[in-house]
Amino acid sequence: MVRPGNCAFELLTPAGFAVYGIVIQRDCLVRAAHQLGCCIDWTQLARVEVLHVAESTRRVCLKMLDRLMAQDPADGEGQTVAHLAWAERAVTMAVLSMLDASKPDTAASNSFMRRQRIVASARDHALGQCDRLITVPDLCERLHVSRRTLQYCFEDVLGISPIQYLRIIRLNRARRALCEHHASSRKVSEIAADWGFWHLGQFSSDYRKLFGKSPSDSLRQGVRLASAECPSRA
Prior knowledge:
By secondary structure, the chain is mainly α.
């Protein structure tokens, strides 16, 4: 499994499953690959999550890791530094050996498409519920995914969290309600509360950032439109 740095992930494993985790700086890996003449497709590596590695290469890497973890660092600061430097080179070589001869798992490579489908289903469900507030737990239950999985899907596909997305939907529905003709008899705070915005100051700030005007401006605009249409109805 390959993941970039600063990127959380969710991993479900059976009981008794052993996991080796190797963290290595990309620039060090690129430099070592160049020195050793390894042909690594870095663009592809950034897109895939699972690589198929030759069994013989995998066994060599596992044995090397077992040996490193079983060894005690030699006494003395100089020897310890030398031991760590050797261990770093050994790990780098093992990783490059696997990357150089690996093939991407096509099923796992399609995981982004799966995330896109999850986000699309979440969007369809949220937009289809016009008469009630949709929460993140509602989406998780509807789509049969964990809250963390839903978070990753939205961040990868849209660059925002599910909470932010649902908030945008609620702001749009509040705006529609403010602009409706019958809204002239209602207060901004009442309409905001209908869509789960209990802090009027925060609601006004978020509303202005998204639409470039205040909720009161939208309400007055709706009143003006209603007044202008009254003569044509008579």
